[in-house]
Every structure is written in C-alpha cells, then in structure tokens.
Amino acid sequence: MDNEKEQQSMSDFLGDTFSRALRNALSTMTGFTVEKTVVPEEQLNHTIAGAMMLIGSKSMFLVVSTNDVTAQTLISYMTGIDPSDLSQGDLQDGITEFANMVAGSTREALVNTEYEYSLTVPFTIVGEHIRFLTKSRIEKYHQLYHNDEVQILLQIFSF
Residue 97 in contact with residue 123, Cβ under 8 Å? Predict the structure, then answer.
C-alpha cells in the first residue's frame, strides 16, 4: 500500500491528533518546528525508535523513529547536554521519553472518544534501517516530519 492509501485508511482525526502531539512535544522540548513530507519508507535510514503500546477498544502501536544524528540533536536540546557527550544510553532514554510525551499528550486529547486508551511502558528499538512490516488488516498511518536539522517518522499501527 502506498503512503497516500495508508493515510486514508487511518482516521484523519486520529492521525491529526498524533501529529499535533508530536509537533507540540518537539516544539516544547526543543524549540523546533517541522514540516510534513512524503518520503517512501524504504528511503529512510532510521536507527533508533521509541515505541509504546496503546491499549483500548482500538489498540495501537506507536513508533517515533529517527537516525542517530537527529537523535543526538533532539536529546541535546531536550537535556542541554552537548551532543558529543551523549552516550547511546542517553539517546535511547531520550527517544523513549519523547515517544512517551507524544503518546501521553495524544492520550489526553483522546479522553472521552472511541480511541481512549491506557499506555504501556515505553521502550527503545535500535538497529540499522528499522522498518515495521504488518499484515494487510492492520491500519497504518505514517508521516515524516523534518526541518533542516531533524527528521522524525511517526508511525501508528491500529488493530
């Protein structure tokens, strides 16, 4: 399925809510503003992701992924630590906390809707060329956000 069809299959309301949460968390924690762009997922070279399960009547898997350079930039802005002083553990903790902020903000925005849910503990996924493949019955939403300094992929898998 191409990105445009995937976008149509996920509720616009839900995708917009997650998108707003990501942009707000990014702006609040780093001061960055980002634009949406369409990029084929296979062109992304993401190496670190924060992820969470969102459990409710319509459960979801949230993934916020990026590359190491963007992770260093984001976590440096979030913590005030120079990028060269950040350890891999710092990057993992930071991207996980960023995913937690996105999920928590989204959770708050979805109270009293059909998408109300509880959060699991966030976790980190690391590796070269991180990709998530699913069965066709899983609804998917993904959107890339970027500016001159950062590139972040938001993915939601709903089941």
Answer: no
Bridge partners of residue 124, in order along the sequence: 50
What is the total residue count of the chain?
159
Residue 127 predicted with pLDDT over 50: yes
| Domain count within the chain | 1
* CA angle centred on 123, ends 108 and 128, rounded to 5°: 125
Cβ atoms of residues 48 and 124 within 8 Å: yes
CB neighbour list of residue 138: distance below 8 Å, 6 or more residues apart: 157, 158, 159
Give the CATH number, domain containing residue 26: 3.40.1550.10
- The predicted model scores a pTM of 0.87
Spatial distance between the Cα atoms of 52 and 70, rounded to a whole number of angstroms: 20
d(CA 59, CA 10): 13
